[in-house]
Write the structure tokens for this entry.
Amino acid sequence: MQLLDNYIPDVKVTEIVTPEERAEEEAFLDAVFATPLMIKAQEFLASKNLPNGRAKFHEIWFDMYNRGGGILGSSGFEHVFAGEINGNSVSGFHNYLFHAQEEAEERLNYHGYMDTVSLGAVSTIKL
């Protein structure tokens, strides 16, 4: 949860990573790499001579990349866990804990996904 306030949602704004934010990333990686599952995954990757180091994991999740316009305003972690805004569109934001926190603090009110479902020739309902 400490990492979630490290990001500017707008992908068109350059992210500046502070030393405090970098320390939070390292603490997150410490916790992840200490889990039995990750220890086993590291052993498996090493047995296949695949990148398995902490540096690679950090690169994948935390190195900033460009979503257009040459601006380093996005990271894998940000996209998945905190979400991003590109114009009028939200992408990512796959983290229920952050989602619930935003709703509890009344910064978000998700009404659900709406779609039309056809039940054949009999009827069509709006979900």
The chain has a mean pLDDT of 84. Residues 2-126 form one domain. The first strand starts at residue 65 and ends at 66.
